[in-house]
Amino acid sequence: MNVKYLESFLEVAKDLNMTTAAQRLYISQQTLSFQIQRLELYYGVKLFERQPKLQLTYAGKQLVEGAGVIIKENESLINSFSDISSKHSGLLRIGIPAYRAAECFPMVLPDFHKRWPNISLELVEESSEEMLQMLCDGALDLLIGTPSRSEVSGLKDRIDFTLLLEEKSYIICSDILLEHYFGKDTPRIKEQAACGTDLHEFSQVPFILHKPPMRLRRVADECFHNAGFKPNVYIESSNTELMISLYPCHLGAFFCRKSRLPSLMKTLSGCNAFPIKNDSTLLQTPICLMRRKNGKPPGHVNDFMILMKTAWKHLADFPVSPVSGAE
């Protein structure tokens, strides 16, 4: 029995539409129908009722529950072969925000591909909470993210948390924006904020903020609360790239993590990056490499983890220029 047929079956079962399932799978509807028929022949049951509209039979519903397990076990078996020979193909499923991947993957993937040329990568970009649940369910092999203290405490028996970086958060703003609101005081504000700001002095500056409940928005809201003011919010967005694109318009300051700074400094000229304080200490968020506690990792997974740790050490050492708010 071809496991690919099970994957096709699950695609159809998602929305019970052969046409859209075939489009997602990049195959013809005729090919998809053939695969479903082969599954029905293999199991000796009818999986779908086709009239008056497509719906799962009782057997089909049972297969939905079991197919995912079969596919995961097959992937695990294929990946385990990588310990025997790097010539075997496999799949490494990684949960990571796109901007983090953009910063660290150029330092990781060339070496990883040389060692494991037949291992494919599947990247997942969902919310932090969704990806952590996927890791627990076995739908991800690795996750790079910022777990909360409660998540670390509650999942420590199931998940290995490897600290990659205690990441600082920064407020990003232009000289033009600062001069508009602080005038002649701008040099003093910049010098004062270079070692860290609790945002109190920025109470009149407009902000471009992430939408709640994004984690960086939670961080921002806590900082505003502790600083004792309600921010002047010009716009909210779930897309940091939009915030970066608006920087030359000088419409507001925005928050970002330190791992974004290498690319940010290249893109934005004259960019001020001031580290944020919370309760008089620099605000830091742990970035972790997470993996389920399910025995020794396959060779390709272990190598990927080692390369990731090296890359993040490089990112941790990235200097913030004195003009742009040195640490």
How does this model look, in words?
This protein is of the alpha/beta class. The protein folds into three domains: 3-80, Arc Repressor Mutant, subunit A (Orthogonal Bundle); 86-166 and 285-316, Periplasmic binding protein-like II (D-Maltodextrin-Binding Protein, domain 2), CATH 3.40.190.10; 168-280, D-Maltodextrin-Binding Protein, domain 2 (3-Layer(aba) Sandwich), CATH 3.40.190. It contains 13 helices and 13 strands. It has helices at residues 3-15, 18-25, 29-43, 58-80, 98-115, 128-137, 149-155, 175-182, 186-193, 215-227, 240-246, 261-267, 299-316; strands at residues 48-49, 55-56, 90-95, 119-124, 142-145, 159-173, 206-210, 232-237, 254-257, 272-275, 277-278, 281-282, 284-292. Strands 3, 4, 5, 6, 9, 10 and 13 form a seven-stranded mixed beta sheet that branches. The chain has a two-stranded antiparallel ribbon with strand order 1-2. The chain has a two-stranded parallel ribbon with strand order 7-8. Helix 1 crosses helix 2 and helix 5 (98-115) packs across helix 13 (299-316). The longest helix is centred in the first third of the chain and has 23 residues, at 58-80. It is elongated. The relative contact order is 0.13. It comes from Clostridium symbiosum. Belongs to the LysR transcriptional regulatory family. This is LysR family transcriptional regulator.
